[in-house]
Amino acid sequence: MSFFEMWRNKKEGGELLKRANQLRLRPSQLRRLLGDSGVQAALQKTRTASLLPPVGTEVFRRLTPASLRKIQQQHEDEKMELQTRKRSKEVKENNQPRPASDLEAGKPLPFFYGNPPPQLLNTPLEELDPFYQSQKTFIVLSKDNIIHRFNAESTCGLLSPFSPLRTVAIKILMNSLFSLFIMVTILTNCVFMTMTDPPAWSRIVEHVFTAIYTFEAIIKVVSTGFCVGKFTFLRDPWNWLDVMVISTGFMAGFVDFGKVSVLRTVPLVLKIITVIPGLKTTVGALVQSLKGLANVLVLMVLVLSVLAVTGQQLFMGSLMSKCIIWPDPNITFHNITTDPVNYYFLPGQRDAPVCGNTSDSRHCPEGYTCVRWGNNPNYGYTSFDSFGWSLMSVVRILSKDYLEDLVQLTLQAVGKVHLTVFVLVFFPGCFFVLSLAVAVVAMATSEREEAGIAELKRREEEFGHILEAIKRREDEEEACRAALSPESDGENTESMEEDQRSCSSCWFVFANFLLKWNCCGCWRWLKQRLYTFITSPFFNLGVIICLIINIVFMCLEHFPMTARFTTTLNEAQLVFTMIFIAEMFLKVVAMDPYGYFQVSWNVFDSIIVFVSLLELSVNDGLRWLLVMRVFRLARWWPSFHTLIKIIWTSFRALRNPTLLLLIVIFIFSVVGMQLFQQDYKDHVCRISETCLLPRWHFTDFFHSFLVVTRVLFGEWIEITWDCMEVSDKTTCLIFFSMFLVIGNLLVLNLFLTLLLSSFSTVCLLDPEEEEQSTLQITIRQIKRALGTLLGKNTHVNPDHPEVDNKEVTRKKYLHFTSVASNPPVSEVKDLNGDHGSQRVPTAEAERTSEEEEEKENKRHPEVQQHKDPENQNGDPEDCCSDKCYRCCPFLDIDTSHGRWRVWSNFRRACFAIVQHKCFDILIFFIILLSSVALAFEDIHLQHRQVLKTVLVRADQVFTCLFLMEMILKWIAVGLKKYFSDAWSWIDFLILQVFLVSIAVDTFGFSELGAFQSLRTLRALGLLRAISRIQGLRVVVQTLIRTVPSMLDFMLVALVFWMVFSILGVNLFAGKFYYCYNETADQIFLPEVVNNKSDCFYLMMENFTEVRWKNTHLNYDDVLNGYLSLLHLALSVDCVDVMYAAVDATWVDSQPVFESNTYMHLYFIGFIISFFFTFNYFIRVIIDNLQRQKSAGKQIFKTKQLQKYCQSAKKRMMEPQKPVPRPQNCLQARLFDLVTKRSFQVLVVAVICLNMVTLMAESYRQTFETEVILAWINFFVIILYFTEFIVKIIALRRHYFTNSWNILDFLVVTVSIIGIFFYDLMEKYFVSPSFFMMLRVVHIFRILYWAKGIRKLLNAFMMSLPALFNTGLLFFIIMFTSSVFCMFNFAYVKKEIVFNDMFNFETFGSSMICLILMTTSGSWGGFLIPIMNTEPECNPYMENPGSTIRGNCGSPAVAIVFMVTHVCLTFLLVVHLYIIVILETFKSEDAEPLSDDDFQMFYKTWKKFDPEASQFIQYSELSDFCDALQDPLRIPKPNPIKLTHMDLPLLPEDKIHCSDVLHALATQVLGDSGKMNSLKARMEEKFKMSCEPISSSLPGKQEAMAETAIQRADKNHDEETAVESVDVSALQ
Predict the structure, then answer these.
(1) pLDDT band at residue 1550 using 50, 70 and 90 as cut-offs
(2) Least confident of 262-276, 581-595, 769-783
(3) Which of 130, 775, 1257, 1388 is packed most tightly, with the most Cβ within 10 A?
(4) How far is Cα 319 from Cα 324, in angstroms, rounded to an integer?
(5) Contacts from 695-703 at CB under 8 Å and sequence distance 24+?
(6) Are 1477 and 3 contacting, i.e. CB atoms less than 8 angstroms apart?
(7) How many CB atoms lie within 10 A of CB 989?
(8) Does residue 520 surpass a pLDDT of 60?
(9) What is the pLDDT of residue 1149?
(10) Rounded distance between C-alpha atoms, residue 202 and residue 215, angstroms
């Protein structure tokens, strides 16, 4: 199943899930099912029949000694029967019974058994599963009819199932209160674990906990048995946790575990999984679904190892380079390097900056020398000096944590040109691994979901069979009766009433008396009028308008506000509160409390009203709670309603995966605190100059929880450095690596489960398919009213006569509110009526419209010709539109004769030029040249007058050429067609920018600000190239078609984020200010400056370096809050905002370090909400892609590219043409050697040895190690050369026909040259060891033999064309953004991440900065400098060589550019991952027999048919079928199956290859339609040279008959001989 088919089936799965939750049999139906033999006879052929008890017997029977003896007797009889039967293995497998999946332990009782009597709960019962009825087991049903299975043997040989002690133990174990008690005990124990300094009496409590766990284990052992037999205590792996907890608990009383106490913590917390229902099943399903990750893990280890060795070979020791001053020539080098005073340091930096000696690396200041010495940055942990540290850096690139720092340090040391290594090697390699991992997890989630849907379908089918059988039986009984007696009729009525009775009579009395107000006729008349009023669409419109105005007023809050403005906002809030109170009052009166609170939205409204009243009474501190009014919009906004419903539904449906994630977070938080708590306290001075604890540490549970949460969000490397500095390095690496893998895997699984599961589609079934909401009805009625007032005729659609009917309007109101609140199913069906039949799937509707369009084109071919952008007959269309000709008749001229015929011929000539391929190529080349010319207009252009003159002239020439192109197209295709194309509009607008720019330069107005801003739009020139490349056009069109849904999503996301923005304004407005010392570059301590007044006092005292500053990202108003939230969601360097919020105290007060630690919860809540909005975002994208795919649109790839991919895939699967075996004896033996698979494995082993040698290298390694590695390297080169000689002799000229051999030849050549010129190559080129590492790709050739890895690699290969198209668009956006930044932000102040190497001064530097922003997600450090305004910068500073003054940025331009660029690149990155996922699903969307299986068949056949005659002997068929692999394999013994295959026999008892393949394929596929295509492929591939003379089945029958006759004849002869002997003896 492809991804889009799976996505389409989600809706069916959602509806199926809704129906499956309603599968219930009424008591009368249940009695008929279990007590009517006719019903069970009708179900005889179904799967349910074997599970139903015989008619006349009780369903639930207590376990008695007699029944136990009967079970034992059955067990012994079955055992004896199995011992006496000695049949073939395949017969045993076929006849072996299996347990019923519906009756497995831990599952609820199937619906057709009904509910057991209450007295039989928690009581031993006889088995219901036929499989276990003879295996000495019994079941116990607990609360909610959960099945528990026990061993019927005596517990420990002492307690039988009827022992009072064991019975009591079972009742205790099954009691829900006991489970609750154990859960409370575990949770209480967990609370004690979180204590930093537990009280002295906690040791006693620990003993109590141990005693409770021991009591629980004793109960389990007494109930289930210890270890002998099935379903005993130790047979359940989850019970091993109890053993570990109890043993460590007793040992803790005698031994101080210290850090090893985690061995008790982990199993103790994991015990929660065994207590909470359903968690064990979730863990088991998750583990089973992740087995497919094994292939990805192999690829990940290999790719990361290759990348680590690459970084090790290229950058080893580079990050040690530092700037050192040489004060005195007499001082030795050792003395200089050991003194930190001689190093160059930047202010506020712990490490000395990295430098390099190349032209494009970072240079030292004057007087300093760049020397490779000292430690690496970041405590020495950031380096490529050995394989371990290089691997850690690669994992850092993979996780994108602090990636920009690693890239910057590397480029500063080795030069900017090495960015190509990251762009072409590291980033694609990490993307390859991550995309495949996401795709595999998505497939596992999809398979799990498909299995669940199949199970639901089976249950629904069984339910349908049962209902059909019951109904048929009832019809038969009615037909047999001549007439029904009144008594039986009354009985039926009573049974129906019994079935439908759900609530007690007391509840109806209470509801009628207090909740339904029907006092008198006047009151009912008032209620009726009010009900008509509140169900009117105009009432809802008024409520919506009030809500929107109220939200606008909430968004107007900012800092600082005047007292008058504050009073106005307070009065407005009071007015809106009164309005909503009045709304609630009117609804309660009109609908009664009983009807009002039946709708969940009304309940939510009442809660908001209550909160509003509470806020009025408190008058302060609860204003932020009013932000919940925003969620009321979801009642009338379908998209917003969908998002809220997804969140609400996921909390219920994803309860178990979420709990599992929380348990893992808690485990690692507690374990981290136990492992590193004391180390942080003892060695904090290693990571803090003030010896104070940093923000992220493990000294208490809350900070440990924050650390683990931060690691889960992707930021782990800095915390790992601190941990490794204060504690054991190995322990820290293991701890963080384990949580990084497990945590991200659980989050990814949770995200994909939410995205792909069917339950999430339940909430999507209604909002999109509503016919009309009340708001739409209101708007249409307003339009009609306005039209009536203006005297216009308003035509009513005859298909909707109910528009003016108020009763129908009220029904629609009730229908919407009821569906939105999940009422009972019967009510929904009644309210829906027949609306469901009017719904048409989107894909089907689009397909219908497409068919209609094709029919229209067939009826009117001239219309299709007019629509075609390339006119087939070469005649240009009219220049102007019909409206222009009607307005200006003189334009309509006859061009068929006269002088205007010349004009017509001229247009035809221009049309031929424009339509020529060379014209597009020429224009594309000019576009590239003009774009390249823009890249040279950097800040250095003023110093290069010649280059400046050339660029000015080139710009003029390019503009003239573009103008000529536009005029040619105007003449050729006409103005009408030119301006009807969006791509032509882009060309036209960009050309206007170029023309205006030239005009401004000509007339001398280029210094004006408005024209300077207009000149920067020339950066959009490269966008014109998109229309010239077909692949790019397809990608852009795919993205553009998603714009409407994206706009809807953006509105929903903005409203959803507005809640957090308003909440942030209420919490943090005006609290991010601080007093700052610019000279010392640090914040004043609160002991020195406490508030704004103290800071201004210092400023009044002429302390010019003191300033009262605000953070650039803050919550002073809603718009700033939006920017902060976007930075928090899409950037990894978002900790500055969190730090400011955590340190904030009061308005105009100096921040205090971690004065409000619990404000972290605000940001955690937002990130959790972003999890759902991002999920909804992916859902919108996939919905649009699926809709486009269903409509036959091209997505990401053109048709030609799709055909090329299909043909390339076929070529990949086809076997290569074999190399002919040489005639020479020596060459033939070498040929046999090199073509063996074992030889390739040996070569790969040598390559692995080479890899290990490269991994063993390190910087500053000993001389002995270097000599040993050099000799190993020399030995490997000799082996490579030997392999080359052997292959060239064996394969001759065919050696160079294989690309792998060409690569080997290149490696051998460079390696041999490197032996003699190693130092020269390493200095001016690349180390020869790097070329030897290229042979590691041979490992992929070996891995290609594995079917799972081969599928993943093929899927990624097939996605490369679409990835290339999207990547090309990505590059165009990056190029455009780089030029734009160079034009606008070249002179900004160099701070934070901006320095001499990384800035927007040149095109190369701009591209590097944008690559860092896009790949790492750290764009906050680039945003702040380009937002600077006075006084953070100097707007009057002179820039040498330029007329531009100042080093300030532009906040408006910066924010608009950064938000646009970040969102576009983020959208493209998401589509890159989706492309790989789609292709991976396609690789699984294959027939049961893939090309891989056919290749396996051919290779196996070649072993039995080395001469390629296509025939083998029939006697070899058994060995051949056993030698195959699944799914075609038929293992031995297989004579019976081979006989039934009925293969055609050729002369000499031979069978043909195609016949065997066809027969084996039939065994797999059956008689399906796929066999026709398979047969056609085989007939095309194989040509039969002779006709069969017989078949295997008649031949086998003849042979068996012949054997029987011979045996009978032999027996007859023996009997005759015996009789003759007897006669002779008698004689």
Answers:
(1) confident
(2) 769-783
(3) 1388
(4) 14
(5) 695/1139, 695/1142, 695/1154, 696/722, 697/722, 698/672, 698/673, 698/723, 699/196, 699/673, 700/196, 700/673, 701/193, 701/194, 701/195, 701/196, 701/669, 701/670, 701/673, 702/1157, 703/1157
(6) yes
(7) 11
(8) yes
(9) 92
(10) 20
CA distance 1128 to 1159: 14
Q: What three-state secondary structure class fits 42?
A: helix
Tokens encoding 1112: 């650039």
Helix, strand, coil % over all residues of the chain, rounded to 5: 70, 5, 25
The pLDDT tens digits of the residues spanning 1182-1191 come to: 888 888 887 7
- Residue 1077 in 3-state DSSP? strand
The pLDDT of residue 850: 42
For the four alpha carbons of 507, 512, 513 and 517, in that order, the dihedral sign comes to positive
In this prediction, residue 290 has a pLDDT band, given cuts at 50, 70 and 90, of: confident
Who contacts 283 (Cβ-Cβ below 8 Å, separation ≥6)? 273, 660
Instruction: Give me the pLDDT at residue 491, please.
Output: 46
Q: Which pairs count as long-range contacts for 389-397, CB under 8 Å and 24+ apart, including other chains?
A: 390/308, 390/309, 390/311, 390/312, 390/315, 391/304, 391/305, 391/308, 392/733, 393/308, 393/311, 394/304, 394/307, 394/308, 394/311, 394/426, 394/430, 395/304, 396/717, 397/307, 397/422, 397/426, 397/427, 397/430
Q: Token pair of 22, please?
A: 């309603």
The closest of 108, 23, 13, 22 to 823, measured between CA atoms, is 22
Instruction: Give the separation between CA 623 and CA 1063, rounded to whole angstroms.
Output: 9
Tell me how far the alpha carbon of residue 1603 is from its chain's centroid: 64
The one-letter amino acid code at 1284 reads: F
The single-letter DSSP state of residue 1285 is H
Q: How far is Cα 1195 from Cα 1362, in angstroms, rounded to an integer?
A: 9
pLDDT computed for residue 1577 by the predictor? 54
Contacts of 190 (CB under 8 A, 6+ apart): 268, 269, 666, 670
Q: What is the DSSP letter of 413?
A: H
CA atoms within 13 A on the CB side of 1106: 17
Q: DSSP assignment of 1398-1448, as one string?
A: SSSSSHHHHHHHHHHHHHH---HHHHHHHT--TTSS-TT-B-TT-S-B---
Q: Crossing angle for the helix pair 1491-1504 and 1553-1565, nearest 10 degrees?
A: 140
Instruction: Judge contact between 1446 and 1433, C-beta under 8 A.
Output: yes
Torsion over CA: 36, 41, 45, 49 (sign): positive
Q: Maximum Cα–Cα distance for the chain, whole Å?
A: 151
* Tokens 């008698």 -> residue: 1626
Q: Which helix (H) or strand (E) holds 1502?
A: helix 1491-1504
SS (H, E, C) 540-609: HHHHHHHHHHHHHHHHCCCCCCCHHHHHHHHHHHHHHHHHHHHHHHHHHHHHHHHHHCCCHHHHHHHHHH
Average pLDDT rounded to a whole number, residues 252-276: 83
Strands (E), 1535-1616: 1544-1545, 1550-1552, 1590-1591
The 3-state DSSP class for residue 1551 equals strand
Asked if residue 1401 has pLDDT above 70, the reply is yes
pLDDT at residue number 819: 34
Give residue-wise pLDDT tens across range 1448-1458: 988 999 999 99
- Side-chain half-sphere exposure of 1243, counting CA atoms within 13 A: 26
Please name the residues in contact with 633: beta carbons below 8 A apart, sequence gap of 6 or more. 544, 547, 548, 551, 640, 1055
Within 8 A by CB and 6+ apart from 160, the residues are 154, 166
Cα(977)–Cα(623) distance, integer angstroms? 57
Q: Are strands 368-372 and 1074-1077 parallel, antiparallel or unpaired?
A: unpaired
The verdict on whether omega for the bond into residue 277 sits within 30 degrees of 0, i.e. cis, is no
Side-chain-side CA neighbours of residue 1201 (13 Å): 19
Query: How big is the CA angle at 916 (ends 914 and 917), to the nearest 5 degrees?
Result: 120
pLDDT at 160 over 90: no
Distance CA 581, CA 1092 (A): 41
| pTM score of the predicted model | 0.83
What type of residue sits at position 410? T
Question: Do the Cβ atoms of 1032 and 1365 come closer than 8 Å?
Answer: yes
